C-alpha cells in the first residue's frame, strides 16, 4: 500500500494559482502548465502523471470545500479543468463580482437555457426577461452590456445571437444545477455528466452530449438509441 | 471559510479590511480572531503558496501575494490583464528610474510619448486616466499624493505597497535594461538601490 501522502510542492501551488486565475484551462494547456511548473520549481516530472499531480492538490483542497474538476466542452468535446467550490450554496463565486440585479438576470437566463430544448436562449428572450426583473427593470442597453460581461467572464457563451452556459459555468455549477433543477436537468446517458445542449431520444427520453453522440455512433452502422433501440432521427453532429 | 473569503476578495485586487473579515466570516469567534487568521494564513501558504500581507497597519488592510519564486513567461493573467500589467510595469519603471518619486506632469508626458493620452479613450485601456489614477491606486500599485501649495494642484507618483510586494526594484531594473538593450549596471545609482 503506497502511503505516499504526497506533499504540496511549489509546483503544485504554482499550478493551482494559474488555474485559479485563468478560470478554466484546456487539457493540453494544463499538461503544458504541469510541465512548466515542475521545471520551474525543480520537481520530479512524469508526463503521464497529471492526474496524480491534481489528486495531490485536491486532497489538500478538500477540507476547504474546493476541488480541481475536469469537465467536457459540449462544443468541441475537449476536456477542461476548473477550480470549483463544492459548497452547494448559491452561485458563490459570482456573488462578489456582480450586483443583485445582474445576478437575478443571470439566474433567469440560466432558467431559460436549462428549460430550453436545445440548451440555448435567444438574446431577444433574455432581453425580455431583463424588462421583467423583480429587483428593478433593466434597460435593453444595460442588459446587452451585462450579457457581454458574462461572456467575457466565461459564464455564458454566445453563438449566432443565442446564449448557452459556458463550459466553465457547467463545471463549476454542475452540482448546483443538478440539485436545483432536479426534474429538468439531464445527465448524458454515455458519460453521466450534466448536459445542457443534448440530443434527446423521442421515444424513451434519454439525452446525450453532442460530442458523446458523435463518438457513440461512429462505431455503429445504423444510429439507434442505446437505451430503447429506436432509430435515432437526429443529424449526427 | 475565511480562506475562501480571502481568495474571492483578493481576486479583485482590492485590499481586504480586517473589519470585513470580522463581519463576514469570523462573527461569533471574535476572541479567537488572531488564531483564525493565523490558521488561514498557514493554509494559504501551504496549499496556494499565497501570503497574507498587512499593507496598512493603521487601518488593518491586507492583500494576498504569491510567495512562489517568480517564473519567466507564464504570467497567470488574461490578455486584458496582461496589457494593464504592461502599462503598470512601464509606469513603475519610469518612477523608479527617476528616483522613486515623479510629478504627475512628467508621468503623463512620458505616457504621451507612448501614445497613451489621458483625455482620450485608448483602444485597449479605455479611460486611461481612470485606470492609472483610480484603479491602480485602489489596488495599491501606485500612490498618488498631492503636492501642497501648488496651484493648479500637482501630484507626486510613487510605488504603492502592493507594487513593492509583488515585484522588486531589481526586477524592474532588469526589465528596463532588457528593453534598452543595456546592462543594469549602466544605471549605477538605481543598481545600487535595487
From TrEMBL, chain A:
GO biological process: double-strand break repair via homologous recombination
Gene Ontology terms for molecular function: ubiquitin protein ligase activity; zinc ion binding
InterPro entries: Nse1, Nse1_RING_C4HC3-type, WH-like_DNA-bd_sf, Znf_RING, Znf_RING/FYVE/PHD
Domain RING-type: residue ranges: 188-229
Function comment: RING-type zinc finger-containing E3 ubiquitin ligase that assembles with melanoma antigen protein (MAGE) to catalyze the direct transfer of ubiquitin from E2 ubiquitin-conjugating enzyme to a specific substrate. Involved in maintenance of genome integrity, DNA damage response and DNA repair.
Any Gene Ontology CC annotation: chromosome, telomeric region
Domain of life: Eukaryota
Segments traversing the membrane: none
Name of the featured protein: Non-structural maintenance of chromosomes element 1 homolog
The enzyme's E.C. designation: 2.3.2.27
Oxidoreductase recorded as keyword: no
Reaction catalysis annotation: S-ubiquitinyl-[E2 ubiquitin-conjugating enzyme]-L-cysteine + [acceptor protein]-L-lysine = [E2 ubiquitin-conjugating enzyme]-L-cysteine + N(6)-ubiquitinyl-[acceptor protein]-L-lysine
Keywords: Chromosome, DNA damage, DNA recombination, DNA repair, Metal-binding, Nucleus, Telomere, Transferase, Ubl conjugation pathway, Zinc, Zinc-finger
Cross-referenced PANTHER family: NON-SMC ELEMENT 1-RELATED, NON-STRUCTURAL MAINTENANCE OF CHROMOSOMES ELEMENT 1 HOMOLOG
SUPFAM superfamilies associated with the record: RING/U-box (SSF57850)
Lineage per the UniProt record: Eukaryota, Metazoa, Chordata, Craniata, Vertebrata
Protein family (similarity comment): Belongs to the NSE1 family.
Subcellular location: Chromosome, Telomere; Nucleus
Known partners and oligomeric status: Component of the Smc5-Smc6 complex.
Organism of origin: Campylorhamphus procurvoides
Automatic annotation (TrEMBL), chain B:
SMART domains listed in its UniProt record: MAGE
Residue ranges constituting the MAGE domain according to the UniProt record: 1-194
Cellular component terms (Gene Ontology): nucleus
Entries under Gene3D superfamilies matching the protein: MAGE homology domain, winged helix WH1 motif, MAGE homology domain, winged helix WH2 motif
Top-level taxonomic group: Eukaryota
InterPro entries registered for this protein in UniProt: MAGE (IPR037445), MAGE_WH1 (IPR041898), MAGE_WH2 (IPR041899), MHD_dom (IPR002190)
The name this protein goes by in its record: NSE3 protein
Gene: Nsmce3
